[in-house]
Design a protein that fits this description.
Layout lengths: L1 H33 L1 H7 L1 H26 L3 H9 L1 H68 L17
Helix pairs in contact: 2-3
Length: 167
């Protein structure tokens, strides 16, 4: 029995060593199969596939960028001439011009109102002067008429007054 148990022990150890070697070989193969550098160096199919993927990704990137940049000639010209900035400046100028026009209208209205007020003042002064002159003329005429009515008529040097004796 001693030999059989020693023999079984030895077989178990050999089996264990063999299994350990097999596991290490499998781990090595798994690491080597998953190692990209090793696959690229040893496998021409992977090299071709990787090259095709890189070229495809590059071409796709270029196409996307070109499609984004593809603009109509009018858009390119507008971009080159910076028409958006010019349009914004023109809108600002238009708003400024409208504000300036509104301010000029207000100034003209205020100026015309002051001119109208000045003209009315002048007209009222002229009217008052005319009224005063008319009053003065009427007063002078009334005074002259009153003198004629109140005072006896003046005689000339050769005339004698005829007096009635019946007095």
């Amino acid at each position: 029995m001693g030999e059989t148990s020693a023999e079984a022990k030895r077989q178990v150890e050999e089996t264990r060593a063999h299994l350990q070697g097999t596991i290490e070989a499998l781990e090595f193969k798994a690491r080597r199969n998953l190692d990209v550098r090793h696959q690229l160096q040893s496998n021409p199919g992977v090299q071709a596939l990787t090259g095709a993927l890189v070229l495809g990704a590059g071409a796709l990137t270029v196409l996307v960028l070109m499609r984004r940049r593809r603009r109509s000639p009018a858009e390119r010209l507008a971009r080159r001439l910076k028409l958006d900035e010019l349009r914004d400046r023109l809108n600002d100028f238009r708003e400024d011009a409208r504000a300036w026009t509104a301010a000029q209208r207000r100034i003209v209205r205020a100026d015309s109102k002051s001119k109208e007020a000045e003209l009315e003042r002048r007209e009222s002064v002229i009217r008052r002067l005319l009224v005063s002159a008319a009053e003065a003329a009427l007063t002078a005429a009334a005074a002259g008429l009153a003198r004629r009515l109140i005072s006896p008529p003046q005689r000339s040097h050769g005339e004698r007054a005829v007096m009635s004796k019946a007095r």
